[in-house]
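We emphasize that the prediction below concerns an isolated chain of 389 residues; any contacts that depend on oligomerization or on bound cofactors are therefore not represented. The input was used exactly as deposited, without trimming of termini.
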Amino acid sequence: MNFHNPTKQVYRVLLILFVGIAVFAALKNWFMPEADMPMVPYPVKSYNNFLIFKYSFKHIISETPLYLWNKIECYDLFKYTPTYALFFGLFSWGSDLVGLLLWSLLNSLLPFIAVLKLVSTVRQRISGFSILLIGESLTSLLNSQSNGVVLGLMILALASFQKGRDYSAVTYILLCAFIKVFGVLLFALYWFRRDKLKTIIPFALTIGLVLLLLPSVVVSFEYLKEQYISWIELLSRDSSRFVKYSVMGWIQSWFNVEPNKIVLLLVGFALQLLFVVTHKSPNRNQIIQWGALWIIWSVIFNHMAESATFVIAIGGMMVYGLLQDRLSIVDLLIWLLVILFTILGPTDIYPVNWRIWIVEKAQLKVFPVILFWACATYSLNLKGIKKAA
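Result of the prediction step, given as a token string:
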């Protein structure tokens, strides 16, 4: 088996590994003992997030409020769109174990399948990067989150854009946005395909409207309108409560400074949009790399980013790395930091007090990802400046 020249046999092995971690995570969650949580008068199951999603489907088809915490069912609030609640009906029938297994498989396999659809990648790197993605995926899968699906849809959007399949790209972007809103950031890619906007904008508006109103197939329009209003109110209340693993969290931890969130976000946007200034006619791979940086950006500039969210950032880094002509010593050193702190930081490889220091106090889970994004942004813009000169 030659890992320097991936073959179908290697991909089969990787596929088995992605299936394996999904099954392992689902079974571990299923058999793990329940835990005591604050404000909840009963033990909470380890696959609580799956239950939140499952009950959201039951709530929407019965036209009961989606965004009120029913403490009898599960811990915490549902924070996704009504369309997502309807979608989760696919995993809500039958036993929780079957639904949990299927949900874990989708979150594990979709990013891997999406990556294989990218063209012009350095294929011999896929094996190594996939192993890293597996490692970070496990954290998300053990939280029964939707991050793998979000990442998979974002990479599918990049792959479709890369091949000129604009309708597919727009559809994937919108599907992602109806799970996590930051998916709309990938519409920035169409700055370099403005000739397509006359057809893309009407198509995007049509698909967006269909997804927005899709639940009205099974619920009344009045109920659906109330849920969207409640969802927007929930997000507005939730946006400023905590600071977790992000650029903001890193600045606070390292420099004991609390920057203004809006100012920091605007600075982040400005740095990300430099690509538009430095590249007048980038090639398709450079645009896809810029898209990969938007994926990373959506995590590190989200002050509410959790540990389980970082599979999205690792996936973005993977896409960027697969399209690099070569990996420099600096690139390899950054990836080493990613392995040591971002991927392994929250795991049992470190003692508990070390894990708390790495992830919580020193913000070393997010720092290598910030470093990667900063170096990649500099490198990509420098290429554009040199080309223009």
